[in-house]
Write a structure and sequence with these properties.
mainly alpha; about 210 residues
Length: about 210
Amino acid sequence: MIRFLAEQAGTGAESTRQAVGFPTLFVLIVLGSLVPVVPTGALVSGAAVVAFHDAEPFSLAVVFGVASLAAFIGDVVLYWLGYRGVRSRNGSRWLERLRARAEPERLESAQRKLDEHGVAVLVLSRLVPAGRIPVMVACLLAEMPLRRFVRGDVPACLAWAAAYQLIGIVGGSLFSEPWEGVALAVGLTLLISLTPQLVRRVRQERV
């Protein structure tokens, strides 16, 4: 993924549609929302760097729109799959997978925040690394209707896309070569995503 963005960034001032490939960006973000194999934040930041250096006037706006929509669709599909398990007597493998991905401490914290702040906590969950799944599981266990989840997830996805696009814009503004900005932006987003794991590991070693 990183190599692909770096290679595309080297194409210079071609249109972002050709350089990044909006359909590919869309599919990868949807996939990354469903299964934890694609670093979606890094994708958005890398695409934003290429868009920043592009001659097309609305490239950044299109990247923002594609990223927001793809993240929203991925979230809604994943929640719908989990909600089917909540409503079923036998549950579902999707619900069990989601619960397995939510650490007990984070899930407990997410449930408290959901009780205190309602769907507004969805916005924070999208911005905090590794915060999305625990909050989604908390919503499922509370049997939050899909319609209510959708209302909270719209601003969450918009805020998420804006935050990671801002990282890409900063990275793109620091270097004259797009590939350098892509490398910096992707590195920053990966560091952000790995920080919670590093913190937990340090705490475990101290204990």
